[in-house]
Every structure is written in C-alpha cells, then in structure tokens.
UniProtKB/TrEMBL annotation, chain A:
Residues 500-526 have a biased composition (Low complexity). One of its GO terms (molecular function) is pyridoxal phosphate binding. Gene3D superfamilies: 1.10.287.1970, Aspartate Aminotransferase, domain 1, Type I PLP-dependent aspartate aminotransferase-like (Major domain). This is alanine transaminase. Residues 108-482 form the Aminotransferase class I/classII large domain. It comes from Pleodorina starrii. Its EC number is 2.6.1.2. Homodimer. Residues 496-526 are annotated as: Disordered. Keywords: Aminotransferase, Pyridoxal phosphate, Transferase. InterPro entries: ALAT1/2-like (IPR045088), Aminotransferase_I/II_large (IPR004839), PyrdxlP-dep_Trfase (IPR015424), PyrdxlP-dep_Trfase_major (IPR015421), PyrdxlP-dep_Trfase_small (IPR015422). It holds the Pfam family Aminotran_1_2. Transmembrane segments: none annotated.
From TrEMBL, chain B:
Residues 144-509 form the Aminotransferase class I/classII large domain. Gene3D superfamilies: 1.10.287.1970, Aspartate Aminotransferase, domain 1 (3.90.1150.10), Type I PLP-dependent aspartate aminotransferase-like (Major domain) (3.40.640.10). GO terms for molecular function: alanine-glyoxylate transaminase activity; glycine:2-oxoglutarate aminotransferase activity; L-alanine:2-oxoglutarate aminotransferase activity; pyridoxal phosphate binding. This is Glutamate--glyoxylate aminotransferase 2. The keyword Transferase applies. Belongs to the class-I pyridoxal-phosphate-dependent aminotransferase family. Alanine aminotransferase subfamily. It comes from Pleodorina starrii.
Length: 526, 522
C-alpha cells in the first residue's frame, strides 16, 4: 500500500485530494464511448441554448437534431389511441367523469378500464420486476400472432426502453476481460459502450457496404475462429435487423444461416429488432429471429434474446421508455438471475409498459378507434418512406458521396470521400476526419449528425449517420443545406488529389481493447 | 481465488500485447487491437460451455450470481406463488403504497394525463374536467418538453424540471443549488447505481453501508465488483448511528487493504426507521471530511417523519451550516424520489441525485453513462416536477392537494404507532418506534426449538419464521438477514402500509400467528 491509499486524518498541510475525481473513478466508465450523444451533440446543445437566449451569431436560426432517432422532437405526432388510453390510466378518476364519453371513444375507455383493473395498484405501484403480468400476457399474445409460434409471458421481461435489456445481457454474460461479443461494424454504439462498461471485448464483424451492408456468415466464421486463436471466449453475437445505422433488412435465408452459425458455435444470439415496423422497400419483409428459429426447430438449442421498443417504428414514444425482451432457450436458473437483476431496479416504469402493450395490441377492425389509428400509422410510415428516398437520393447526387438505400430503420449512413487536406486538418486537431466534417456541418447549417467513427467503419472510409426524421416541410431544407455545405467543404479543403484507400479486406479478427479489469497497484488513491 | 489470479494474469498479458499489432477497423477512434494468444485452449473451452449449454449458471458473471436482493427474494417468490394459487396475500415486503390501496394525489395525475393527451387541452369541456392550475401546469410542461412526453429528454432530465428541483432544494435548505448537478433518473435506485458504477473500480474499492441496510446497496456494490464494509446501527439506542462504530469499520477495512470510497447513510432509515439528529449529521460530515469519503445520503423518506423532536434535515443543509472547510469540500450525493412520501408513485419511476462538491470531470462521466440509456422516462419527470413544485396557496388545487397529503401523512403516523405498539405487546418481540420512513423492523427472540427446526429445514431462522408467517397468514415480509443484522439476532421487516381499516386485522393476524409459533416451539 502506498501512502496515498491511507490518507492521514491529522495532516492539514498536504494538498487536499478529493475522493471522487476524474482520475480516480472507474476506468471502464471513462473508456466507454457513446457517440450518439458525444462531443458534437454537446456543441449542438450549446448552440441551441445560445439561439434560445439570442446569444452568439450563427448562419442559421435553429438546430436540426438528426443525430438521434427521436421522432417527436422533430414534430412527429403521437398515435392518438395510445395517448388516450395512457391519459385514462394516468388519471383514472376521469373514467368517473360524466363527460368522459364526449372526450374518449368507447374502445379507449374499455381498454383503460381493463388495464386499470388488471394492473394491481395501477400506475403508481411497483409491478413485478419483469413487468405486470397482464402486460406480459398481452405482449406474448401479440408475438404469437406475429410469428405464428407461441410465446410465453414468463419469457418476457418488460424494460425501460430496449437499452436495459442490452445491459442485462452484458452483465450476465461477461465475466472476464477475455469474454467477448460479436458486434456488427458499423454498429449502434450502445453495444461498444456497454461492452467497455462491463469489461468485455468487442469482436467485430464487418457489414459489406458494397453489397448493401450485407452480413456474410462466412465472414462471421472467420472472425470467430480468429478471435478464438487470440484467446477470446466469444459469448454472443449481436445482430441488428433492420440495421442501425445501416438500414439493411436481412433476408430469410441469411437469418437461417446466422442461426445455424450460432448453433454450431454455441453462441447466444442477441437480436436487436427495434426497427421491425420500419421497412420501406416492397421486396423486403421483417421476420423475427424467433420465427425463423422456430421454423428450424432451434428454439431450444440457440439461446435467443429479442429486443423491441416503443421508441421507434411509427410509435416514436422515446420519452416514455418502454420496451421488452423475449428470451427463448434460456435455462430457468439463468432466467432467475435476469429476474434478480431486474428486481434491483424494482420495476420498469408502468406508463412505458402500458404503451408497449398497446403498441403490440392496437385497435382492431370494427373498433371505434380503428380507422383513425390506421390512418395515422400509414401516414407516418408513408412519410418516412418518402423522406428516406428523398434524403438518400439527394446524398447520392453529391460529389464524392454514396449511400445505400435505407431499406429500414430511421437512418441513412452515407460514405463521404474527404479531401486529403481535410484529413490532415483533422489529424492536426487530434480528431477523426468525419468528426471534423460533422462539426463544420453543424457550425454552418445547424444540422446535427453523428460521425461514422462513432459506429465503426472500414479504415480509410468516412461516413456519418443522419436520421430522416425532420418533417416533410423541413427535410427539403435539410437536403439543400447539406448539399451547399458539402460543396463548400470540398472547396475549402480542395477536392483535388483525394486518395481514398479501398476498404481493407476482411482480416482475421481484431478486438477492441477494453480496459482490462485486473487491479493495478498504481493510481488507486484518492 | 485461482480464477482471480488467472484474470489478473490474462489482463497483464493484454496490457503487454497492446502494441505493434496491425488493426483493420476502428470505433470512435479506438483502434481494434489484436489480442495475445492465450496458451491454455482447454480453459477457453471450460469457460465457453458446460453440459452443452452456453448459458449455464456456472458460466455467468460471478458478480451477477453472487448478488443477493432480499426484497424480492425467496419470501417474495413464495408469496407470488401462493397468490397464483389463489391465496390472499398482504404484501408488506416492499414499500409500495398504491398496491395496498393508497390513492394517488389528484393534481400530479391530472397534469400527467393532460401531458400524455395534449389534445384534451383543446377540448371545449377541458375546463369543466380539469382545474385551471393543472391545465396551466400541463401547458407549461409541454412548452418546456420539446416534442412532448414522447421525445427523449436530455440524459440528465428536462432542464425545467431540474431547475424546479434546484428551487425546491434551495427552499428546503436555504442553500444555493445548481441544476446542472442534478440528474433526474428512473427512480432513485438508478441514481444510486450510476454513482456506484463510477466510484467502484475493483474489489479493493469499498463502500461503508449501515447494517441493517437497504439491499439495493449490497446488491449494487456486489454487482459492480466492489466490497461492502458494514457499520452497525445500535438497536439499543433506537438504531443510532455511532461515529466510533464507523471508525472501527473504516480502520478494519483499511487494515485489509481496502480503499474506502463512499459512505451510505439512510435518513430516515430503511429498514430501521430512525431519524438522524443534526448533531449526528454533523459528526458524520466531519468524519467524511477527515477521512475523505464521498457521502451518499439516501434521503428518499424525507417527507415520512412521524415524530416532532427530530424533523428531517438534509445533509446538505447541515454541511452548509457547518461552514468551511466542510461546505465546499465534502463530496455529497443526495437522493430523492417520487416513490415514497405521500405521493408513493412507485410505478412511475421518478427520482434524482444532487451532486455537491463533485469534480466536474466526474459529473461529466456520470452524464455520459446516463446517456447510454438515453433519458429518464418523462412521466416520472413530470411527477417529480409536481412533487417539488406543488400547487401554491390560492391555486385551485391547493386545498385538495394539501388535504390529501396531510391526511395520508397523519394516517401513516397512526399506522406507525399501531404497528410498533402491536409488536411490542408480543412476548419475545421488541421494536423501536418507526420515527420515519415506511417500515417497522422488530427483533424476534426465537426459542431454541424454532432454531433447531429451521436448521433441520436448511433455512436461516428468520427466513423460517417469515415463511411460516406467510404460509399461515398470507403476510409477506422480508427476513432481517436480507438487510443484515447483528449475529445471533433475528428480525423481520414489514411496511406500515396496510390501510388503517385493515391494519387492526393485520396486527391481530400477526399476534395470533406469533403466539401459536412460540407455543409450538417452546
């Protein structure tokens, strides 16, 4: 033990060191990176504050938040039916109001009455840690309808958004620094961030941009073999379908191959299926991994976790924090451990739970709210499709930019060819070139996007992620501003002499070095 | 131990190998580095699957498996099972007031409903149905929540609500509060865990926790791989908190090579119900200052006080009243929630942590971790807004709101007496008065025969007692061993939350069970 570890109580002369400082907190916390709300976003927040207070001078009058799939902040309206039922659940005394039928349709009232009765203690009581039973039953029933295979409420865990489910899996599966998970590159940074936080390692598999961000199972095999020769213990593979940030939608055959791979290699499959309602191309269809696994008779053999959320789709209820995970092929005693983890936070919020049950069980034909519900749903999805096409089309017309079609999800992930001078300039700042591009985009236009480096990309290539969520009135402006900026950026840094290395061919696995969890003897003091 | 050594060895190998290996891709500017081959292939196999299962309980994160969480442990699971079989269960195992019939306060629910369904605000009848101040508040909130309740907020929570929380703290303590150091969370548990996660680096990092304690602390510290160092509360002195006992615990921990980083105290106490005096808080703050330990003040029961001698005083106020060097040096995290008090809005999941004198870099890191879960739920934030900024005198809802709160608080006070008096009237049971919070934590002197029977059944004696109580009466409690207790003593925790109209029935049931139990094992 060094002297710094046993602070004396009497010594008033030495400089006082505080117990909690940036130097003495958990390194895994510090090393964890989360680009969706990273430095660019913080700068954007500052600019938005300045604009609100009339401070500073910017060449635009508002910040356009394309960094995050947060539809309602950009004007998407909530589905009326969900909000009506939620209002009645939140304020059940309204049900006794004599005017109630003037305010709410019959099926809304009936649904709220059912939920209020079936949820013990209502919204203000802790539910079971896995979620209220009635909610899990409703979710299970709708999964069964979606897949044509039964779902068991005991396999459903309601969560505050889908993110806690990822935390549970990391916590459960990662034991030592050699434990790892296969994650697509590009990926949603929740995965890299939580892997670092829980002390595991990321084994990347690269999606093939030239094949519409295709997932090649042969490449998965190469990567796992290489990871193993390097001493890593691969516990699970994460698949995001439809992809985030890449928007691709997996084919049925591809999913079968992935499941076979998981069976052969004895991996847990974590299926991030939160964008299942967001599909914009006629020739693609969403299949759940659960359905495909059931068809293949693999439900017992491949432990599968399927994630869903109310934040995406046409629902877009990000703020309520609702979601669920369905686990299949999990032994009972492992499920007990998940329940214990869930119980430490007592329970997921009830308003999010109810919203999730409603999303999975919308009004049916013949019910009073059905027509309005359908009209709202198809208007949102139709508009998202138009906006996706408009944005991707416009991006592809820009010099040095190429962008795969957004088959699903809420994002476009264009590849940008950056001039050497820009690459050098970024290097001098100690930043990634795409970060520089995104920062200058923000400063010139108020548009907030996320640098591709936050998601991972083939070396030497640069991307950014943007949502196509600005409203139809706004997106034209976004496209125009983006185009102008891009041209100006190329001019500023001189577009001659750009040399873009081809993406490197897939090589034996590399893994992000997460900070090893072993104790070091230095720097442990206050 | 062998495994720990192996982990350390592997970690060292990784550190050694992090140079000179070519990488193909990068995430966030971090090169994806190759790893050193691991010599023992067989070990890898052992780690990967067992009995043909990847997800084998022996192959899970050790910290997860070893974590214990008694509030929802064996007793709770058995109670759930009995309920499914149709037996009537009185759930007094968890402070969940609405589940036992407490009604939500009207005003906050009116506001949340209007925020959820803003189209109601345009309805011609809205003013007949909702009071004007609920309408005004909903409009104010909707104006401040960009995108309404369906949009992610800032990961620390909405700025308006953080501002309201800061004003609430200022009014309560008479001390300035900075909204940028207030993080809103899905209940206080999440806030506690965010802070512990940042604080704990490895097994040597320790946190002082009262025994008996609320198991959130033991569970989370275990989960993050740290060490819990218990300090005992003195049952004979009304569960008093003694600085000498703390010094003893600290000294022993340091002698074992632990780095004590934090100190948790719960005021009013859970499960013990004691309210700390100002004097006691001063000693605690001085101790934290001298020993350079972060104070974690669990003050979620600040509204639940059932005696008049020691009203609630926040650690922050006491720290400021003490002047320098304490006020600007003691690192303090204080937690509050909408789940307790008279609101009892457990299911909405709203809470906050206020950080005082915490290094800005550390605050930033906590912010980043909060951002990984995007944002706390908006309904919980709105409930918190109503809690910290309630209707004011003259507002249309003021009278009803004040009345609802006062009557619930008065009823809780009566119930605190009913429960502790009931326990103290029993032979072999002693119980400190529930001065605050929502629990009673009686000590039960179990006869030797009961201990033998428990042993034969393979159960801890208090678990045995609580299981019998559950099977016989349907009363679901938590055994003292889940909270920690002095060796050789046995306790249980029950809430004081059954409604008054059923409370006498509850006390009677308990009495009858206890008498029969003592008779059976005498």
């Amino acid at each position: 033990m060094t002297s710094s570890e046993a602070p004396s109580t009497s010594n008033g002369t030495s400089e006082r060191r505080v117990p909690l400082s940036i130097d003495t907190i958990n390194k895994r916390v510090i090393n964890s990176e989360y680009a969706v709300r990273g430095e660019i976003v913080q700068l954007a927040q500052k600019i938005a504050r300045d604009l609100g207070e009339g401070k500073g001078s910017y060449p635009f009058d508002k910040v356009v938040w394309c960094n995050i799939g947060n539809p309602q902040i950009l004007g998407q309206k909530p589905i009326t039916y969900f909000r009506q039922v939620l209002a009645l659940c939140e304020c059940p005394q309204l049900l006794d109001n004599p005017h109630i039928r003037e305010l709410f349709p019959e099926d809304v009232i009936a649904r709220a009455q059912l939920l209020n009765k079936a949820i013990p203690g209502g919204l203000g009581a802790y539910s079971d840690s896995a979620g209220a039973l009635i909610i899990r039953q409703l979710v299970a029933a709708s999964i069964a309808r979606r897949d044509g295979h039964p779902a068991d409420p005991e396999n459903i865990y309601m969560t505050d958004g889908a993110s806690p489910a990822v935390h549970y899996m990391m916590d459960l599966l990662l034991r030592e620094p050699t434990d790892s998970m296969m994650v697509p590159i590009p990926q949603y940074p929740l995965y890299s961030a939580t892997l670092t936080l829980y002390g595991g390692r990321l084994v990347p598999y690269l999606l093939d941009e030239s094949a519409g961000w295709g997932l090649d199972v042969g490449h998965l095999r190469q990567q796992i073999a290489a990871a193993r020769t390097q001493g890593l213990c691969v516990r699970a593979v994460v698949v995001i379908n439809p992809g985030n940030p890449t928007g691709q939608c997996l084919s049925h055959q591809n999913m079968r191959d992935i499941l076979s791979f998981c069976r052969e290699e004895q991996l847990v499959l974590i299926a991030d299926e939160v964008y299942q309602a967001n599909i914009y191309v006629g020739n693609k269809e969403f299949f759940s991994f659960k359905k495909v696994a059931a068809e293949m008779g693999l439900l017992a053999e491949v432990p599968l976790v399927s994630l869903h959320s109310i934040s995406k789709g046409f629902v877009g209820e990000c703020g309520r924090r609702g979601g669920y995970m369905e686990v299949t092929g999990f032994p009972e005693d492992v499920k007990d451990q998940i329940l214990k983890l869930a119980s430490i936070n007592l329970c997921p919020n009830l308003s999010g739970q109810i919203c999730c049950a409603l999303m999975m069980n919308p009004p049916q034909a013949g019910e009073a709210s059905y027509d309005q519900y359908r009209a709202e749903k198809s208007a949102i999805l139709g508009s998202l499709k138009r906006r996706a096409e408009l944005l991707v089309g416009a991006l592809n017309r820009l010099e040095g930019v190429s962008c795969n079609a957004a088959e699903g999800a809420l994002y476009a992930f264009p590849k940008i060819t950056l001039p050497d001078a820009a690459v050098q300039a970024a290097k001098q700042m100690g930043k990634q070139p795409d970060w520089l591009y995104c920062r200058e985009l923000l400063e010139a236009t108020g548009i907030v996007v996320v640098p591709g480096s936050g998601f991972g990309q083939a070396d030497g290539t640069f991307h950014f992620r943007t949502t196509f969520l600005p409203s139809e009135e706004d997106i034209g402006h976004v496209v125009e501003a983006l185009g102008k900026f891009h041209t100006a950026f190329l001019k500023k840094y001189g577009d001659a002499g750009t040399t873009q290395p081809q993406p490197q061919k897939l090589q034996p696995a590399a893994a992000v070095a997460a900070a090893p969890a072993g104790a070091t003897d230095a720097d442990n003091g206050h | 131990m062998v495994r720990k050594e192996a982990t350390r060895l592997v970690a060292a190998l990784f550190r050694a190998s992090n140079t000179g290996v070519s990488a193909s891709w990068s995430v966030g500017g971090t090169r994806l580095k190759s790893a050193m081959p691991q010599p023992q292939e067989s070990k890898d196999e052992d780690l990967h699957h067992k009995d043909g299962k990847v997800l084998h309980p022996h192959l899970l994160n050790e910290n997860v498996v070893k974590t214990q969480y008694a509030v929802r442990g064996e007793l709770y699971l058995r109670a759930e099972q009995l309920r499914k079989e149709g037996k009537e269960i009185i759930f007094t195992n968890v402070g969940n007031p609405h589940a036992l019939g407490a009604k939500p306060l009207t005003f906050p629910r009116q506001v949340t409903a209007l925020c959820a369904a803003p189209f109601l605000l345009d309805h011609p009848r809205v003013e007949e149905i909702f009071p004007a101040d609920a309408i005004a508040r909903a409009k104010k909130i909707l104006g401040a929540f960009k995108g309404g309740v369906g949009a992610y907020t800032d990961s620390r929570g909405n700025p308006l609500v953080r501002e309201e929380v800061a004003r609430f703290i200022e009014k309560r303590d008479g001390v300035a509060s900075n909204p940028d150091h207030i993080f809103l969370t899905d209940g206080a548990s999440v806030a506690v865990r965010l802070c512990l996660n940042a604080m704990i680096r490895h097994e040597r990092d320790a946190v002082l926790v009262p025994i008996p304690q609320y198991p959130l602390y033991s569970a989370s510290i275990r989960l993050y791989g740290g060490t819990l160092v218990g300090y005992y509360l003195d049952e004979r002195r009304g569960w008093g908190l003694s600085i000498e006992e703390m010094r003893r615990a600290l000294k022993e921990a340091r002698e074992e090579g632990k780095l004590v980083r934090g100190l948790v105290f719960i005021n009013p106490g859970n499960p013990t119900g004691q309210c700390l005096s100002q004097e006691n808080l001063k000693e605690l703050i001085q101790f934290a200052y001298e020993e350079r330990i972060v104070l974690m003040a669990d003050e979620v029961y600040q509204e639940n006080v059932y005696q008049d001698e020691r009203p609630f005083v926040s650690a922050k106020k006491v720290m400021h009243d003490m002047g320098e060097p304490y006020r600007s040096h003691v690192e303090l995290l204080s937690f509050h929630t909408v789940s307790k008090g008279t609101a009892g809005e457990c299911g909405l999941r709203g809470g906050y942590v206020e950080m005082s004198n915490i290094h800005p870099g550390a605050v930033e890191e906590v912010y980043k971790c909060a951002s990984i879960n995007l944002s706390p739920n908006t309904i919980g934030q709105i409930a918190l807004s109503c809690l910290v900024n309630p209707p004011k005198p003259g507002d249309p809802s003021y009278e009803l709101y004040t009345k609802e709160k006062a009557s619930e608080l008065a009823s809780l006070r009566r119930r605190a007496h009913m429960v502790t008096d009931g326990f103290n009237s029993l032979e072999g049971v002693t119980c400190n008065f529930t001065e605050g919070a929502m629990y009673s934590f009686p000590q039960i002197k179990l006869p030797p025969k009961a201990m033998e029977a428990a042993k034969a059944a393979g159960k801890a004696a208090d678990v045995f007692y609580c299981l019998k109580l559950l099977e016989t009466t349907g009363i679901s409690t938590v055994p003292g061993s889940g909270f920690g207790q002095e060796e050789g003593t046995f306790h249980l925790r029950t809430t004081i939350l059954p409604r008054e109209e059923v409370m006498s029935h509850f006390v009677e049931k308990f009495e009858k069970f206890h008498k029969d139990f003592m008779k059976q094992y005498s």
